[in-house]
Write a structure and sequence with these properties.
The structure holds two protein chains of two kinds.
Chain A: E1 10-14, H1 17-33, H2 38-57, E2 62-70, E3 74-82, H3 90-93, H4 107-114, E4 117-122, E5 128-135
Antiparallel strand pairs in A: 1-2, 2-3, 3-5, 4-5
Helix pairs in contact in A: 1-2, 2-4
Chain B: H1 5-16, H2 19-31, H3 40-59, H4 71-87, H5 91-106, H6 114-156, E1 161-164, E2 167-173, H7 178-195, E3 199-206, H8 212-227, E4 231-235, H9 239-248, E5 257-258, H10 261-275
Parallel strand pairs in B: 2-3, 3-4, 4-5
Antiparallel strand pairs in B: 1-2
Classes of the chains: A alpha+beta, B alpha/beta.
Protein name (chain A): Anti-sigma regulatory factor
Pfam families (chain B): RsbRD_N (PF14361), STAS (PF01740)
InterPro entries (chain B): Bact_StressResp_Reg (IPR051932), RsbRD_N_dom (IPR025751), STAS_dom (IPR002645), STAS_dom_sf (IPR036513)
Chain lengths: ~140, ~280
């Protein structure tokens, strides 16, 4: 492992359902490169899928950056950004079962449980930026 | 605007003189790049038709293709492009049928005469317009074709199979988006009616990731099947999917889930044996 903060990122615009599928494929490829176990691959792919769908549905579209990170361990970092309305009450949005879009209300809270690092930067009118990392064990 | 009304009428006259020879040259030049993949008779028919509507439109003083007199010309060009697109010709091979009119005309102009030169230059621009229109009709036709195929694939990829007397199964493979989930639900419910099956198994072995949307689609399908009086099981839940579902916090409630399709079938057969009073016979 080198101390290199990361390899070149791959960017995918998210404007349709097909793009969510593409994000999943990008994350899966990165997860395989980072040598994540099958369970961790599935977890990070699922988390990215949830968040990308949120970007599409609630953020009105945005972009996703996927990169393999190599520090002491290797891992996958996924960064999602949109310029949508942002999240007013983050606490509430992260509550299991809370939804404004007719879903199960588990996407955001579930995605947080599926990954090792979860950072969210949002405010009403400022859009939403989310960064997640899953490390290889 | 590519042509003035006067230019348009003058070109119509020019195209009419010795028309049989012009069409023959045009057909020969247009046919060359197609290397015999389109029969000469077919090509001649298309070019003759195109020639006919082109002269008619020019006669009416058409100034550019989007103007009103061009309606029929647009229809003929769109038809030609669509036909070529469906027959597998490339966009270039399609547009060349229009552009070769320039070659066919080139021998006929006296370019030393400034007035005639101006006419031909304008007409050249006009043919470019026709060519561009052919390109866009061609790509529109191709997109239609792709959309059709995607739809066919959607149907193909969601078979409902009869596994046993009274047991139908849907083996899901690939991504389950909203459109496919809808098709799956419709087909499963119809199969339940058609076969009178009291049991349905949804097998998700081939689904790479189960996120909340996929889970929600599956849950809705199960509830719909239950409303119709059928019992619905989910099978093919692999270890990594199980762990992901738990971490996400999705609950399948009282829906029976099994690791493999074989387990699900065994479960169903046992249940149906109990129903029919101990005989391990299929349900009537």
């Amino acid at each position: 492992m080198t101390g290199d903060p990361g390899e070149e990122a791959q960017t995918q615009a998210v404007v349709s359902d097909q793009d969510v599928v593409r994000v999943r494929q990008l994350v899966r490829t990165a997860a395989v490169t980072a040598k994540l176990s099958l369970v961790d691959q599935t977890k990070v792919v699922t988390a990215a899928s949830e968040l990308a769908r949120n970007t599409l549905v609630y953020g009105g579209g945005g972009s996703v950056q996927v990169r393999v990170v190599r520090q002491r361990r290797s891992g996958v970092r996924v960064e999602l950004a949109d310029d949508g309305p942002g999240i007013g009450d983050l606490e509430l949005a992260l509550t299991d079962g809370y939804t404004t879009g007719g879903g199960l209300g588990l996407g955001l809270s579930g995605a947080r449980r599926l990954v090792d690092e979860f950072e969210i930067d949002t405010a009403p009118g400022r859009g939403t930026r989310i960064s997640i990392v899953k490390w290889a064990r | 605007m590519a042509l003035s009304t006067d230019e348009s009428r003058r070109m119509a006259d020019r195209l009419r003189t010795d028309s049989a020879d012009l069409v023959a040259t045009w057909v020969a030049k247009a046919g060359a790049p197609l290397t015999g993949r389109l029969s000469e008779g077919e090509l001649r028919r298309q070019i003759t038709e195109l020639y006919g509507v082109l002269v008619a439109a020019l006669d009416e003083g058409m100034t550019d293709l989007s103007a009103a007199p061009g309606g029929e010309l647009r229809a003929v060009l769109a038809d030609l492009s669509r036909g070529r697109a469906r027959q597998g010709f490339s966009a270039t091979e399609t547009a060349v049928s229009v552009f070769t009119l320039k070659d066919a005309l080139s021998g006929r102009a006296d370019l030393a005469d400034p007035a005639e030169l101006r006419d031909f230059l304008s007409f050249n621009r006009f043919i470019d317009e026709l060519g561009l229109f052919t390109f866009s009709s061609y790509s529109a036709a191709r997109e239609e074709l792709i959309a059709d195929q995607a739809e066919q694939l959607l149907e193909l990829s969601t078979p409902v199979v009869k596994l046993w007397e009274g047991v139908v199964a849907v083996p899901l493979v690939g991504t389950l988006d909203s459109a496919r989930a809808q098709v799956v639900m419709e087909r499963l419910l119809q199969a339940l009616v058609d076969t009178g099956s009291p049991y349905a198994i949804i097998d998700i072995t081939g689904v790479p990731a189960v996120d909340t949307q996929v889970a929600q689609h599956i849950l809705k399908t199960v509830v719909a099947a239950r409303l119709m009086g059928a019992e619905c099981l989910i099978s093919g839940i692999r270890p990594q999917i199980a762990q992901t579902i738990v971490a996400l916090g999705i609950e399948f409630g009282d829906i029976a889930t099994k690791a493999t399709l074989a387990d699900a079938l065994r479960h169903v057969l046992r249940r149906s044996a109990a129903r029919t009073g101990g005989r391990a016979e299929p349900v009537a």
